[in-house]
């Protein structure tokens, strides 16, 4: 059975082809797809390789005519319509199809608005947690929407009380426990990476370059990185900044860099291929993640080797040191931490240029 949840069929009576219904707002081809969607695609591809049927219920792409149903390397994506109608349609579709016995398990990703599928799905539910927004939602969306997100997140201890969780980091696990999820219901499953094809250049031979990789959104606080680089550039004229990714904050960040005199030092690449991403990370001295919620996530693992013991050991990846803001759920009890892979420190604005 799923631990603490509803009974599941024993392995001897599982269907020949396990059927998984996956709930995640954006599919891997969505214009605003990020790390969670990469996680969805890579896991689904590997599950499909084991003969498992994986279907995602996603929202439509804004301003684009993406097909209603699409196959993506083993992942079947069903787009239920634009965002205003997406969540109600997820509920209706999940209720109808799980009651009809169309799915053996529902896998819900908690990284935007919780689906609360445990309340209506007639199949076992597994929750995958990257991070929850909490009050950081007010830095990303209009306050009525942010208030709604916070209110729904407060339902998590009640709705998900007996649902098994997979958390991608220890800080995400602690956040769930602090919100009322029993620790014995949470397993850790760290984000994996696809290592680059070639060995990285030694850090000492690289230019003095700082890199950021990820979506350009307000809550990720890339503006702190731009301001910190402007201060550091006063003492290091050879300093460079490379911002890899796209998002709603792109124009504002480029304008900020110009205002602070970084026009010739800062490069905003937009979306790039995996090979170019690896080359940019491998050419940097340090990769920075200033987000108040995400800490040492998949982008940090992509830049450096894993700091967690694994068998077999994980590859070194791009060999770049990382500096991350410690997620809000882990301070003030945890001090700034340094390892062979980088630094994880307080996420306060005043500490931005002092840490490390």
What does it look like?
- The protein has 356 residues and is α/β, with parallel strands linked by helices.
- The protein has 2 domains: 178 residues, Glycogen Phosphorylase B (Rossmann fold), CATH 3.40.50; 149 residues, Rossmann fold, CATH 3.40.50.
- The protein contains 9 helices and 15 strands.
- The protein has an 8-stranded mixed beta sheet. It has a 7-stranded mixed beta sheet with strand order 11-10-9-12-13-15-14, with helices on both faces.
- Helix 5 links the parallel strand 7 and strand 8.
- The longest helix has 17 residues.
- The termini are far apart.
- The N terminus and C terminus are likely disordered.
Feature tags:
single chain; 356 residues; alpha/beta; Rossmann fold; 2 domains; eight-stranded mixed sheet; seven-stranded mixed sheet; 15 strands; disordered N terminus; disordered C terminus
- CATH class of the largest domain equals Alpha Beta
Structural class comes to: alpha/beta
Overall mean pLDDT: 80
How many domains make up the coordinates? 2
How would you write the strand order of the largest sheet?
Answer: 3-4-2-1-5-6-7-8
Q: Outline, from the CA principal axes?
A: globular
Short note summarizing the structure:
This protein is α/β, with parallel strands linked by helices. The protein has nine helices and 15 strands. The chain has helices spanning 35-49, 83-99, 143-153, 156-159, 170-178, 222-233, 250-259, 274-282, 298-303, and strands at 19-23, 53-58, 69-72, 75-79, 105-110, 125-129, 165-167, 186-188, 209-213, 240-244, 266-270, 286-289, 321-325, 337-339, 342-345.
């Amino acid at each position: 059975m799923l631990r603490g949840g509803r009974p599941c069929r024993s392995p001897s009576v599982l269907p020949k082809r396990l059927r998984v219904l996956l709930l995640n707002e954006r599919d891997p081809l969505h214009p605003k797809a990020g790390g969670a969607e990469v996680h969805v695609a890579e896991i689904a591809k590997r599950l499909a390789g084991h003969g498992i049927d994986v279907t995602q219920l996603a929202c439509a792409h804004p301003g684009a005519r993406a097909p209603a149903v699409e196959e993506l390397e083993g992942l079947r994506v069903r787009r239920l319509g634009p965002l205003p109608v997406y969540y109600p349609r997820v509920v209706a579709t999940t209720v109808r199809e799980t009651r009809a016995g169309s799915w053996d398990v529902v896998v819900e990703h908690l990284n935007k608005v919780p689906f609360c599928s445990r309340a209506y799905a007639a199949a076992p539910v597994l929750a995958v947690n990257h991070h929850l927004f909490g009050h950081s939602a007010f830095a990303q969306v209009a306050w009525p929407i942010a208030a709604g997100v916070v209110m729904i997140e407060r339902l998590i201890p009640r709705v998900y009380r007996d649902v098994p969780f997979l958390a991608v980091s220890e800080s995400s696990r602690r956040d769930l426990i602090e919100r009322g999820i029993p620790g014995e219901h949470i397993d850790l499953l760290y984000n994996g990476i696809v290592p680059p094809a070639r060995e990285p250049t030694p850090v000492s031979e690289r230019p003095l370059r700082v890199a950021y990789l990820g979506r350009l959104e307000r809550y990720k606080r890339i503006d702190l990185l731009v301001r910190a680089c402007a201060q550091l550039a006063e003492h290091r004229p050879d300093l460079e900044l490379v911002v890899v990714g796209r998002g709603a904050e792109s124009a504002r960040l480029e304008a900020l860099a110009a205002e602070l005199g970084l026009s010739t030092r800062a490069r905003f690449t937009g979306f790039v291929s995996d090979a170019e991403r690896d080359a940019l990370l491998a050419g940097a001295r340090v990769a920075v993640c200033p987000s108040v919620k995400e800490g040492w996530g998949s982008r940090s693992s992509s830049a450096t080797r894993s700091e967690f013991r694994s068998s077999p050991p994980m590859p070194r990846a791009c060999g770049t040191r990382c500096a991350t803001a410690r997620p809000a759920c882990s301070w003030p009890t945890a001090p700034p931490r340094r390892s062979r892979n980088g630094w994880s420190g307080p996420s306060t604005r005043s500490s931005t240029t002092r840490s490390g």
